[in-house]
């Protein structure tokens, strides 16, 4: 059975609609203990009991979606590959929602089954030292339905003199300088990037190395990321493809920036890149590291960045996108680079344009 564009749209819409029920606004402290949008047990029961038709996908090889969605603390992930960023010994709640009918699932850590807390829920604890772990959710037939690359972060208190293992991070702005402390939250930890782990997938189409700060340094490097950014990038990529705008390669021109590097390039002090939820991006299917001619007018200009911006505008109208709202900047070309857009998930709308 072939999976048509319409079928993909149905799967995407049904799964994405779950996000609106459980994803927090990123204007809140994402590092705080998770707080559910649906408050109280009665409300949670009502939300879970909402009638729906299970999505039965026979030819799953053609989709990046898992056959269920996974609630990870305060976000919902529909993809068959994703990542967790946790501190040593941190406990994370993993709950399967919208499972396939009459199917059971098990969580495995490095091939060892993890005991459930409830029928579709696990409270999984990270190891006590920084590094990588791998989780898999398998159905009873042994099929792997979702893989999670777990990054146990180095706690931020180990930064000494603005450095982690000789990697220059620099100081974050003092709290006294911050007006909206819920939006500008310092990292609690940093992902250690090595030559061995940099190729690991964070989501179906993006790898760890793509978000690392561009400052010159050997390994290890360190990066801070928020899962909301990954969800936003995957959603934008899918929306463009659904609207017949081919995206086989979306380039992360700039992801995380350390405060030191952000200052060195003369960027604003409170850049969202410093807070791990921003990316400067463009579509580059032909591999020349420049924006493609997305509007098919025979030239590459800011109008091609506008094509991407319009997709963000469309997503902003949808309830399932509420937790991913943030900044959108449109940039025209310069001699050393092509046009691009900036996106982030700060939790409030911000718009700017620089020809």
Characterization of the model:
- The chain has 355 residues and is an alpha+beta fold.
- It has one domain (5-354): Muramoyl-pentapeptide Carboxypeptidase, domain 2 (2-Layer Sandwich).
- It is 18% helix and 29% strand.
- It is built from 5 helices and 21 strands.
- It has helices at 5-22, 41-48, 227-242, 259-264, 302-316; strands at residues 65-72, 75-79, 81-86, 91-97, 105-109, 112-114, 121-125, 131-139, 144-152, 154-155, 163-164, 167-168, 189-193, 201-203, 206-207, 221-223, 250-254, 278-283, 327-331, 340-344, 350-354.
- The chain has a 5-stranded mixed β-sheet, with no helix packed on it.
- The longest helix has 18 residues, at 5-22.
- The protein is globular.
- Residues 1-11 and 13-62 have low confidence and may be disordered.
What are the defining features of this structure?
355 residues, alpha+beta, Muramoyl-pentapeptide Carboxypeptidase, domain 2, 5-stranded mixed β-sheet, 21 strands, Zn_M74/Hedgehog-like
